[in-house]
Amino acid sequence: MEDLSPADVKNAYIDGVFATVFGTLTGGVFLTGFAIYLGMTEVQIGLLAAMPYAATLFQPPASIWIGRTGKRRRVAVVNNGAARLMWLLILATALTPLVPAAIKVPMVMGLVFVSHSFLSVSYVSWLSWLSDLVPDQMLGRFFGTRNMYNGIAGMASVFLFGHLLEYIADRFPNGHSVGFGIVFVCAVACGMTSLTFLSRVSEPPVQPQGPGMRFADLLKPFGDANIRSFLLYALLWNFSVFFAAHFFALYFLRNLGFSYGFVATLGMISAIADLTAMRIWGTLSDRFRNKAVIQACSWIVALAPFLWTFARPRDVWLPVLLHIAGGGFWAGIQLCTNNLVLRISPKRERAVCISLYNIVAGVGATTAPVLAGLALEFLGSPHSRFLPENMVPLQAVFLCSSAMRMLSLQFLRRVHEPEEVPMGQMIRILRNVRGLNTTNGFNGPLHPFVEGPKAKRGESKGAR
């Protein structure tokens, strides 16, 4: 990080911590619990889950706007602020008796979509800004460390507010209303705090592309076969993941009967695994590049929905083990996918490529939960005879998700990253590392992450 200003690094990290708390408290199990509290159906929950990805449609005009003005920091700060303040209006709409019950759910869903639209515009500006600020050779370490701190913040917020929500809901009249009110107000406060630090991060000068930039320029990356292959993979992978992802919280709370406190504890366990693995994946991605890390992690993640079908209401160890594996391997996928987008994109077209990636991935992530919600509604109807008696509809959705994840990984093989290392070679190198034992000390498994494998005698470093 020696090429970065220490103040920029500090402000970027602190911004990430507070922004993560905002995102955690307005999403995941809290958003699903809020939807259940408002009486939303499975289809409506699917629509709610699809909104962040449907909002990526606003990123192409955002890319053009950024290209013409070059004012990425202003775009990111203003839109982030609007998105976060919107949650005060969402809370007021949901809890006030002045809004008729018949329109309360549609109004809440509409306001959530508006909030995600602002966030979508801010994201493409923020990522383009930070990718220019951080040198390419440090992307893995910078975002790995930042994501590790974010993981700590997410872990703490899920654990503390999950138990707080459960405590208030169980002991006070209208406890859910009070609990969700506290959760969302604290989320907005943290979201606005993050902006004070984000606004202090330096903005590298960028040459505005002027009014000559047109919507047709957004199609230029499609002329690159490598980018087309990556976009196809992103579409299929995100569809397969989000076919099940947003229904896990519903499965925990309704089918397995987990309490908010236990779900919060599982979230903390997952976050610990995430933050423990994040810096390792970041250093690995700098050593072996991103594609190999994504491939290795994705095969484990693909099995997770299938394994969740074996969970039972009183199980403890299986949920714990799945959250450990999920947190650790998802950390590698999330970090390295963003880095892969940056590495395969031409520098002058990064904002456009980021937008296209988010749009294509968003199409998959938008359509999947809606279709899954419709499938759940159909499979759960009294006239459906497609499932065995001992299988609930959500388990069928999880099985489909696992199968589709495995199939979509075949398309990642067509993507080529500069200086990439094949997944098999990475695994062979890691398998040859000294094992962990009391005589070797604790640095054995971390040895290749720090130094990389030694070159053979007479072999240049560049031939590794």
Number of strands: 0
Strand content: under 5%
Helix and strand content put the structural class at mainly alpha
Shape: globular
Uncertain segments are: 434-464
Question: What is the H/E order?
Answer: HHHHHHHHHHHHHHHHH
Main beta sheet strand tally, sense and closure? none
* Termini Cα gap: 24 Å
Radius of gyration: 22 Å
Summarize the structure.
With 464 residues, the protein is mostly helical.
Give a structural overview.
By secondary structure, the protein is mainly alpha-helical. Helices cover 72% and strands 0% of the residues. It is built from 17 helices and no strands. Helix 3 runs antiparallel to helix 14, helix 7 runs antiparallel to helix 8 and helix 9 packs antiparallel against helix 15. The two termini are 24 Å apart.
Name a few traits of the molecule.
mainly alpha; disordered C terminus; 464 residues
List the helices and strands and how they pair.
Elements: H1 6-25, H2 28-37, H3 42-54, H4 59-69, H5 72-95, H6 101-133, H7 139-171, H8 175-198, H9 225-242, H10 248-255, H11 260-288, H12 290-308, H13 317-344, H14 350-379, H15 393-412, H16 423-431, H17 447-450
Helix pairs in contact: 1-7, 1-8, 3-6, 3-14, 4-6, 4-14, 5-6, 5-8, 6-14, 7-8, 7-11, 7-13, 9-14, 9-15, 11-12, 11-13, 12-13, 12-15, 12-16
